[in-house]
Amino acid sequence: MASLRPGRCYRRHERPNTRQSIRVPRKGYVKGVPRPKIAEFELGTRGKYKNSVFLVSQRNVQIRHNALESGRIMAIQWMDKNLSKGSAYFFKVRVYPHHVLRENALATGAGADRFQQGMRMSFGKPVGTAARVYTGQKIMELKVNDQDIAAAKAALKKASYKMPTPCRIITEPAA
Asked: Which of 67, 68, 81, 105 is deepest in the core (most CB within 10 A)?
């Protein structure tokens, strides 16, 4: 498997031409959409909690599936390590990576110019998926009780380091 390009290559919102036709499969534009790496979107104990802590995007951005998974892992590890005794939490990733990212792979090395097509038919092959996130959209949510708000904020702060956009953390009473 080839190495990943840096996240800055896919950060900008692009026109989504990721059509997958069900009835007429030959008219689907993208062939072989890869599965997202996110293992679970909801973790923890369901129940009644007093507070919801959210990770909120401050820019329009595309967040790749591996960045979402990395942020999820960071937040869960922090909560498992720093939660007060006898407490529980519920974690949810609120965005889904629908947008298919494509890459027009270019040949490198000696003699590459002889068989390289350049930008002719440069639609590209699918290399991953991304979630299209807008300014003010909630990316992740942690539901906790009053004594664990500080741990939840710290966990989402750790997760924000994995995101390709500046994020802020807000707290609201749980619905």
From this structure: 68
